[in-house]
Amino acid sequence: MTVTGTEERPGTGMRTPQRRSEGRLHPFSLLKRLMPSGLYWRSLIIIVAPMVLLQVVVTYVFLERHWQLVTERLSAKTVAEIAMLLDEFSENPTPFHAARISKRAGDHLGLPTAFLDGETLPDTPSSTGGLLADSLNDEIRERIARPYWINTTRQNRYVDIRIAYNGGVMRVLSPASQVYASNSHIFLVWMVGTSIVLIIVAVIFLRNQIRPIERLASAAESFGMGRDVERFRPQGASEVRRAAQAFVEMRDRIERQIEQRTAMLAGVSHDLRTPLTRFKLQLALLPDGPEIAELRDDIAEMEHMLEDYLEFARGHQGEPSVETDLAELIGEVRDDATRKGHNVKLDLHGDLTLPLRRNAFKRCLTNIIDNAGKYAPHVWVTAIRDAESDEDGSIDILVDDDGEGIPEEQLEEVFRPFYRLDAARNLDTGGTGLGLAIARDIARGHGGDITLARSPMGGLRAIIHLPV
Ligand SMILES: Nc1ncnc2c1ncn2[C@@H]1O[C@H](COP(=O)(O)OP(=O)(O)OP(=O)(O)O)[C@@H](O)[C@H]1O
Ligand SMILES: [Mg+2]
Fold first, then answer.
1. Ligand approaching nearest to the C-alpha of 412
2. Which of 375, 400, 442, 460 to mutate to test the pocket of ligand 1 (most atoms within 8 A of CB)?
3. Most buried of 68, 124, 216, 320 (most Cβ within 10 A)?
């Protein structure tokens, strides 16, 4: 249990098993923590992750190698052409011949070429590094074996290649596309574009698949909290529909069972009430006396017990859930308790509205607060909305008193129907021992629970925990 300050936070006790497993170190705990918990995001990752992985592998392994190979071939071809032009020129190095070669190179090879007599290679360093520069360097060294200078930064989409000959420099401005495989990004654009379209389709499709599951989950949740799930229809994939159908059948079975139980007990109680009424009538005809008074008390007690029993058996079914302001409801119960002579103080925090079966829950509160008032001189009722604990938050109602309390080992026992602590304590209080059982039944019917603990005020603390 988590302890904040001197007071124990209510409701936390119920979730201790979960807390404990969170603390344990698990080999996959990091992966688990990183993995989103929702089915929607998990399925999306299952679809998207392989797609991205495939693209990365294709791009790196296939495209990189393809690109490298094509660039090497293209630059080898260009260097071979340059070597041929240079050979041509070396055989007859006259300006006239140079002009003819330049013209042919420009016309047929698409290589603007100039033979610059008297020029020297630039002083700036020649390009190195990178796929294009490396393959050009290799090819020129191998095929031409003369001093050279290249600039592969591709200014104006041209690669500048200069080769020294005796008395001058041959300069070739090769279009980048002739030495370099550059249009592979089109392929990437197509690939990424297609995958984006695929992902969008997957997202839409997944949404539609997961919606019926979400609907089923919230229907089951609402039913567990005692709220109406009238409009629920099985939908979606066959497995989901099967689960939904099973849920609907289960709900109907539970409702039928409760109806049967109620009908039977109502019958029994009715049958018992008739002879009781007869007793009462006969007693009224008899002369007054101490024995008669005792008999009358006994009959009154039996009637009271029958009422309680019937209430317990009837449960809280049949009453619809309505949006209720708990602060107002607690106020009403306090006023009733004050009228019975109990001393009840309230301390309410935050927004306390939630859907409730109003009458049933009022009875639950009354039972707990009346108990405290009956067995102790002072009662404190605290209600807090706890936003962090559950998904949508929860409300805890604490009922503290400064009475004798209940021994630790009996804290669970007292919830059993007809269970009361030792008779000596209860001599003058009267009661059937159904109060707590009914209260817990109602709280559980709302998806919550009631637990008992020792109160900081000295007596008993009842904690009513309600999911919102
Ligand atoms: N606040 C309390 N302080 C001390 N004992 C309590 C308190 N609340 C309940 N108990 C003990 O738990 C027993 C069971 O309580 P429960 O409300 O179920 O029955 P009851 O109050 O005896 O009868 P009734 O059916 O009229 O409520 C009580 O008999 C009492 O001994
Ligand atoms: Mg009681």
1. 1
2. 375
3. 216
Instruction: Determine if ligand 1 sits within 6 Å of the CB of residue 432.
Output: yes
User: What fold characterizes domain 320-467?
Assistant: Heat Shock Protein 90 (3.30.565)
Residue 429 backbone dihedrals phi, psi, to 5 degrees: -85, -30
pLDDT tens-place string over residues 157-191: 889 999 999 889 999 999 888 887 765 678 788 88
In single-letter form, the type of residue at position 450 comes to: I
Handedness of CA 298, 299, 301, 306 (dihedral sign): positive
Q: Is residue 420 within 6 Å of ligand 1 at its C-beta? A: yes
Q: Is the pTM here over 0.85, yes or no?
A: no
- Reply yes or no on domain 186-314 having CATH 1.10.357.10: no
Q: Which ligand is nearest to the CA of 426?
A: 1
Is the CB–ligand 1 distance for residue 364 below 6 Å?
A: no
Contacts of 338 (CB under 8 A, 6+ apart): 344
- Distance, CA 439 to ligand 2 centroid (Å)? 9
Cα gap 57→400, rounded to integer Å: 65
Torsion of CA 437, 440, 444, 448, to 10 degrees: -170
Cα 102 to middle of ligand 2, angstroms: 112
- Average pLDDT in the 21-44 region? 75
How many angstroms separate the CA atoms of 367 and 440, rounded? Answer: 10
Q: Which ligand neighbours the alpha carbon of 431 most closely?
A: 1
- Reading phi first (left if > 0) and then psi (alpha if -120 to 50, else beta), residue 343 is in beta
What separation in Å is there between the alpha carbon of 429 and the centre of ligand 2? 9
**Which overall architecture, per CATH, does domain 60-179 show?**
2-Layer Sandwich (3.30)
- Ligand 1 atom nearest to 371, measured from its CA: 8
